[in-house]
Amino acid sequence: MKTAHNSLPERIPATTAAESEYLRAARGGKVSPPPVWLMRQAGRYLPEYREIRSRHGFLEVCNTPELACEVTLQPIRRFRFDAAILFSDILLPLIPMGADLSFGKNHGPRISNPLRTRSDVEKLKRFEPRESLTAVLKAIRMIRSELPREIALIGFVGAPFTLASYFIEGGKPDPFANIKRMMYGDPKVFDLLSKRLADMGVEYLAAMVEAGVDAVQLFDTWAGHLSELEFRSRCLPYLKIIFEQLAPLAVPMTYFTLGGMHLLSGIRESGSTVVGLDWRTPIAAARNTLGSDIAIQGNLDPAILLTDETTIRSEVRRIVAEGKQEGHVFNLGHGIFPQTPVTSVEIMLDELRGAKK
Ligand code: 1CP
Hints:
- The chain is of the alpha/beta class.
- The chain has helices spanning 21-26, 47-55, 58-63, 65-79, 94-97, 118-122, 129-132, 134-146, 160-169, 177-185, 187-211, 228-234, 236-246, 264-268, 283-290, 309-323, 342-354, and strands at residues 83-85, 101-103, 109-111, 152-158, 215-219, 253-256, 274-276, 295-300, 328-332.
- The chain has a single domain (32-353), classed as TIM Barrel.
- It has a seven-stranded parallel beta sheet with strand order 1-4-5-6-7-8-9. The protein has a two-stranded antiparallel ribbon with strand order 2-3.
- Helix 4 (65-79) packs parallel to helix 8 (134-146), helix 9 (160-169) crosses helix 11 and helix 16 packs across helix 17.
- The two termini are 27 Å apart.
């Protein structure tokens, strides 16, 4: 396994596959076994990722096309997942909007100038992604040229509510105090912020598709904290803006939230074409609510990869059976944990792909 970043990345061999199985399943097709990728598949559980991070800061990796390309491809070389996801972060586009964002050692993201008032929100900058996020778009072009055609490349943004959560709290939204204060105390300002973030999301994702991503995913990690009423009034309208405006690009559009089972009927109206489920949401129940036109992604509990081989294999079989190998993209129910043994991922894939035999 090559880890040096100054050399050209090792070529990933193409197969004779005519098209991407990920794209077929995400469009509702029958694919057996289901295609697979993992949320946070490029990350600290991989020694080759840790090696790069020992020499480069997190934002430096995101902002250097060669490094972002390299770490995006690392899990593909090792596991040949059916899709690569651009290595970046949902918070990156908040920087050109005006956020003073940092990722320190041993703590998550921090924004030192959080939004609290109407004037804070009105001061946010609009930006042209082709000018302000050129490194990301260049990374996409590099990755796409390195990937064989049959491996899809996924681009992403944070959904307005989740981005607003970090932007208002100035970091991990816990316990959502400032957010709820703005949502209830000044809903017009909250809506203005959500609209700005939705517009940014549309422009950024459209630029990513133009640069070469084959599919997009909206991460709405924190929407599961909302009641259905709050979701429908303060979150769903902005999801609709994003998915409606991107629909003409005809790429699969996945919506992922954590703990969102109670929101599924609202999510169904959002316009997303794939719904990412966390591990608590049974696939059959989700299909019942979502109907047959929406594909499903998920939903192995990432903690299962910290257990034993027998458990991993039986949980993989259960999820494949529930997904019925139709309109199903296999994934975890949330990002892979940094302490996950690489062998657990190998066992998971062996069980999944063994179904082909
Ligand atoms: O090397 C490191 O230690 C940095 C850790 C890290 C990584 C690997 C962060 C900081 N972000 C990322 C990459 C990342 N983040 C990707 C890359 C593509 C992939 O492999 O999936 C993606 C899609 C994200 C998206 C993201 N960032 C989300 C949504 C998904 C989720 O995990 O719920 C969120 C909430 C973030 C914020 C964020 N960035 C990083 C951290 C540690 C966090 C979470 C902090 C918190 O708990 O609030």
